[in-house]
Amino acid sequence: MSKLTKNQTAVAGKVEIGKAYTLKEASELVKEITTTKFDASLDIDVRLGVDPRKANQMVRGVVTLPNGTGKVVRVLALCTPDQETAAKDAGADYVGLDEYVEKIKGGWTDVDVIITMPSCMGKVGPLGRVLGPRGLMPNPKSGTVTMDVAKAVKDVKGGKIDFKVDKTGIVHASIGKISFTPEQIFGNAKEFIQTIIKLKPAAAKGTYIKSIFISSTMSKGIKVDPKSVE
Q: Are 222 and 16 in contact (CB under 8 A)?
């Protein structure tokens, strides 16, 4: 068994095994047990009582985190010329259409989010083979295929993220950075969880929110009492 570092030893006993903390307590504790020298990402995992294999139990949505994500999000707007200026003014890092379609065909995917228009999907659709595996394919359900490109860019830059339950019934998301205050962490986590609660499928039976864990990069997971969020 490897020996614990000085920092690991200092925080080892701060998280009680099996204890479910309130969301407020967890938001404070996750900062206390994070000892990385870099600004670690803050992650949340919510296990749901759904069967993702059934279409009527799929949980997918978008949420705008009130305190942002803490990340620099690189946005590509694939749009018609009349929308380019508005997209640039809204903060898009890359704006255009044909030239970027060709770059993507060549393997370029150096962005975090791609936003486009319905009228451009004829050119963007065939890129699914490249963009799909990287989670970059624009989708109307996540708001990345829209007539209002500028608004979509602003939303993404302002902390909008999309999520969906995976095949094991868990929703994973990054909801901030460890440099956030406990209040900011709490605000983002609460907004995220409450959004998931609102999306409960009518076909889901029994306990919907089975467990919630909050952690930062390389920290222990902190169990959160779902009742402290409702």
A: no
